[in-house]
Structures are given as C-alpha cells and as structure tokens.
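Schema walkthrough. Field components (list of strings):
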Amino acid sequence: MNPKAITTERDARVTRLYEQLVEIEQRLIPTGLHVFGRASELQEKADLLRMVASFDRPEQGARALQRLVADALGVESYDALLHETSTSETRQLIDGVAADAVRQCCEHGVETAVDWLISKAGVDSEESRPTFLLIAKVADQLDANNEIDSLARALRGEYIRPGPGADIVQNPLVLPTGRNTHAVNPYSVPSQMAFARAKHTADALLRRYFEEHGRYPRALALVLWGLDNIKTQGEGVAQALWLLGVRPVRDALNRATEIEIIPLEELRRPRIDVVMTVSGIFRDLFMPTMALLDKAVRRVATLDEPLDMNYVRRNVSEKIHADSSEFDDAVTRVFSNAPGNYGTNVNFMVMQSAWENDATLGDLFVTRKCFAYARDSKGRSVEGREARELMDDALSRVEATYQNIDSFEVGITDVDHYFEYLGGISKAVETRAKSRPSIYLSDSLSPQTKIRSLEETVRLETRAKTLNPKWYEGMLKHGFRGVAEIENHVANTFGWSATADAVDPWIYTEISKTFLLDPIMLDRLRELNPHSLQSLARRLLEAHNRGYWNPNEEILERLRDIVEQQLDRGGTV
Ligand code: BEZ
Ligand code: MG
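Field assembly_structure (string):
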C-alpha cells in the first residue's frame, strides 16, 4: 500500500471513531432515579432543553432552533445537513449557536435569548420567540413538582388533571408530572392501517348516501369517542380526514401533526364538510388529534377549488356572506364538552322521562357539547370556548350523521351512550336543519365494511339480542342483574325512539309479547326482579304515551295491570 493510501485509511478510521464518540457524548441518559415528590435535579437540563428545541413542534407553533439558525444563515438544505456527519463544519456551527441560545434562554430569559439570536445569526424575533417560550415553559415545568399534592387529591377521590405518558423530548406536554397519566400516544393516531380501512368505510358511507339521495351530503356530523379511537388506532379520526379529502402526514418524530391535500383528480368526488363532536374522554386523550382535525378543515376551506367540489369552502363562504362572520368562526368544526365536563346528559333526560318536546333533547346535546377546540388564524389556541351559535350554524347544514362502532361486544342498545351521542346529535340536526338527517353506523371489526342505517341497526340488535332466546335466557341466568339488563335494552331501544324516531312499532309489540304477555315469563321476571319488571312495563306505556307505538287496548290494559299490581305489592313509583 502506498503511503498516501495508508494516510487516507487512517483518517477515515479516526473520523469514524470520532463520530461514535460524539454520538455517545450527545446521547441523553437518565443520571439517577426520580424521587417521588421532588423536582428533577437534572445536571444536564440544558442538554435536554437543546434536544427539546431541536424538533419542529407545529402543534405549538414552534420551529426547531437549529432549523431557524440554518435558514437565517442561508444554509440551503437543513434536512440534507442532518444526514451528514456531525463533523460537518456547517452543522457544528449551527449546533453550537443553538446550544448557546438555549443557555441564554435558561440563564437570562426569553427576550434576551431572542435578542442574542438576532445578533448572532439574524433570526427573526417572531420566528424564534415561540421556540424560546416553549423552552422556558419546559424549564419551569422541570422545576415544578405536584406529585405529593396529586397523590393526596387522588386519595381524597378528587379530580387529577390528565397528562400523556411519553418521553419529554418526544412530547414535552408530559410535564408537569403528578398528573393522571394515560398511556396512549395521541400522535400515533391515525395509524396507516386505520387510514386504509377508513378510506373503504368513508367511501361506503358516501356511496350509500349517494344511492339513497342521488347526490353527496353537503355536511356530515360525526361522533368520535376516545376508547374507540384507541382500540382502532384512530379509524374514526381517519374517516373524518378521508371525508375532507386529506391524508395525515408524519413529522420527523413520526407524529401525525400535519396533513396533505389529496388532489380532486385522485379523490374523484367533492370534499365533504364534517362537524365533529368528540367525547370528553377523546378530548382528554387526543388533544393533538383535535388540532389535526381542526387544521385539516381550515386548510380545506382555503383551497382554491370550485364550490361544488369543496363543500367545506362552500359552507364557510356561505356563512361569511350570510352574516359577515370571521373566517375563524365560520370554519369551526371540532366541538366537545367544556373543559372538565363529560357526557351529553341526554341519556339521563330520557331515562328520567324529563322532557316534553323532542327538540329539548337536541338542545341539551348542544348545550353540553358546544365548546370549540381550535387554533385560530394567528395560531392562538382556543380550547373549550363556548360557541353555541357556531355549532347551531354548522349543524344546520348537516344532512347525515354517523358513528363508527368499534366492537361487536357493545352495541347500540347495550348502553345508553350511543343514543345520547348519535341520537342526541341527530335530534339537534333535525331541529336546526329543519329536516331529519339520514343516520348511519358501521362496525370496525368485520373484514368488509358494512354501512347500516340506524333503523336497520336497531332491527338487527333487537333480533340478535333483545328478542333472541339465546340472549335473554343467558341474561336470566344472572337472576336479578339479568332482568335489569333486559330492562336496560328496552330503555336504550326507547332512547332511539326519543332521539331519532328509529324504532319500528313491531319491536315494542314483540317485546311486550315476549316478556310481559307470556304468563310464565312474567312470573319468572317478577320472581327475579320486580323493580326492573315494573320499569319495563312503564317504559312500554311511555312509548305509547309519547306516540312511538300504538298497540291495541288489550295490550295496554295488561301493561297497566302489571304496573298497578307491582304498586300494590310495594313496587317503586
Ligand atoms: C369514549 O370512549 O369516549 C366514551 C366512552 C363511553 C361513553 C362515551 C364516550
Ligand atoms: Mg336502567
């Protein structure tokens, strides 16, 4: 080997060794155990903050410090530079300036760091301030500790604020500690698989609507639940994105924080406007996902496309022209409960027979759910602002409502939550749009997606469960509780009459025949659980009184007898 070749090989080896040393040096490691209730005593806080600052955080309006420095210094491609070796002089320069800027921020505060970075690299103050604000916030939160206080609150049975369980660099929102940690990573939603499945489901939903109406709905209202989206890795979320005609895009940390517009030529249908009502659990678990959904609607509303191919834009501009609304208001589509609140209460109102006029149920839904979660055009976060008028307006354009069911185990008559949400929003639409929407459901676990109308689903559930001897005999083996389950099914079925007028009268007749008009069954129920038996008979009478069912006088007499006999035996009123 000639001397020159030997020198070259030696240099390459030394460089590789150096690279490895730098990699080890820069790697963050925990340097001790966390002591419960004590603030972190991180020696390497500045290193940690430098890592935090080195990622774009679009959800917080903050760009990576290194990227800001690179842009200001006129470095052509920062992304390509990241793949170069850390011995690159340009990269060392950028990393050095960023590290010093973080130190300035920790030692002298945000404004000093902003000024320092202007003087060192000419980075615009408006660009760097959000990043320094984030660094300062994380630094403060590292110094704080609420763990003992939170533990004491938990032991007293009080509310503990939730917070994500993740890595600080990946997601600085894990701070402060001492919160009710949830293990799901909201940034992972929707998964690629969920998006692929959602495409089929959303297409099937639109196809079904088109077949029934000869056109697409100008707006759809969707119900999104937290546990469902955990279980399906975000199928409901992905369906909303697909209806809008956008794809989720992952950032450098593999988090779904961005969206990409699917061109109309590829979509081959209009972009559908979607009004999203998310549960309180979803709001607590998936705040970044709400931001993604809001971002998607905003982007779609600003696309330069024909109005007849972009219903979001059409509806938003209609609203702006109708009452001179601001764009930020007209484009609001993500609603949930007020911060800290859960549920619609529509189920309680129905179960307690506490309404006179159907419209009240829809009004209650809106009262509970009209809190907007968005980021305005200036990037300011709006989390839980009461926006009743905006929700009323958005719902007034809705022509179909929809919810994805995540499992076969819990169907629409097993629990009262389906009718409180999907029924509640459908009733709210009916009074605001002055027309009952088409109501659809699908389930996620079947290999092919099947879209069913609500009426079809109620029939299916009634036949498969409530009226099926295999189901109710299985329940009756549980004695007292089993009768209560049967009564619950009937009450939940009644909930679909109250909120959506979706129950065929024959269903009430068959329920009466099966459980109350058969003397042997009646005795069994009376023996096992007279309270639920009475509630069941009263519920059927209420269905008649409210006009959902008009049985013959003989059936009514029998139902009244059962209620009265129970009262004579000391049953509850
Ligand atoms: C949810 O997972 O978001 C949820 C669960 C039960 C009732 C309502 C919503
Ligand atoms: Mg009950």
